[in-house]
Amino acid sequence: MTASDVGAPAIPERRVSTVVVAGTHVRLARLSHLLQMSGVEVLGAAKTAEDAVTLVGTLGPDTVLLDLALGVGGLEVVERVMARCPTPIVLIGPASQQADVALAAGAVDVVAPTAEHLGPGAFARVLGRHLSVASRVRVITHPRGKLRDRGLASDGVSPAPVQHGAFRRTPVVVIGASTGGPPALASLLGSLPPDFPAPVVVVQHMAEGFVEGLAGWLDGVVPLPVSVALSGDRLRPGHVVVAPSDGNLVVESSLRIRVEPARPSQLHVPEVDRTFRSVAEVCRDRAVGVLLTGMGRDGATGLLAMRRVGAFTIAQDESTSAVWGMPAAALAVDAASVELPLPEIAAAVLDAVARLAVPEAV
After folding, report:
1. Are residues 229 and 125 in the same domain?
2. What is the pLDDT of residues 121-160, one digit of tens each?
3. Comparing C-alpha atoms, which of 117, 121, 123, 113 is closest to residue 93?
4. Are 190 and 44 members of one domain?
5. Which of 194, 234, 240, 299 could anchor a disulfide with 200, C-beta 3.0 to 4.6 Å?
């Protein structure tokens, strides 16, 4: 983004139309509102690749604004749109995190992440300008999408092969859950492979004295070793630690664990928000945050803190949640990069970690 972005006119000379694609209803609503402020006509909105491709083919917009992470359908949108109904695609948010891949597949422009830190009016003008410029780009059918349609290209983003050895910085996965959490955790963790290359931190609301039983049960039903976290231990790739019930689990530099006393006014012990915030501070964009089923709002602000520093964040959808309280609260504040049903979360985590687990250059 340049200085001219901020000062660009709010309404393009020619009214540009677009289809918006994002991972959550909250994000779709926010982007649609900003685009309307900028004078862009929003013809349709989609949460999935299938819906996006259908809308673009049916409505024929001037542009597509893509805010869906590449690993959960974003790349599929680019490839299939460019194969079937070539339309200028502008990347934003999660879709911009692997912009080089999407641009190679046919996208034409990227909105810089810093633009989101502007006020709503300025950000709306940036979006309007990018879409206005993109609408004048002449695009052609892209061959990669043709390969997909013929079954010669994989669906979505194939996880990068996991390479073992010294990692530049180990990615960390952190999961929060409450009511309905144990079976959801068993489902998610049970879908991760034994050689999973990242440590996993679990914060589950549970009465004192029951966490040990949860960890022991999970250890027997999932491929990864599971134990209760201890202060001073270091997080290890391929190992799951569960926060104890007598305090808050904090991740410190060098991925050391510290269990700190709960605050006197604290509603839930352990607290998901506290752990998420510590991961945001230490790991920043090399983390994956997941908020599963649960009652209340714990985890929403912590997940937002993670997303704001570039982490990939996931909220469980309503249809598969026992209680859609915590994920709904996260979606309400735009803390989730994507909203997914429980059976799809493990695959999204695997893909995100595979992209982050890049070995050091020799």
Report:
1. no
2. 899 999 998 898 888 877 777 654 444 444 434 433 343 3
3. 113
4. no
5. 240
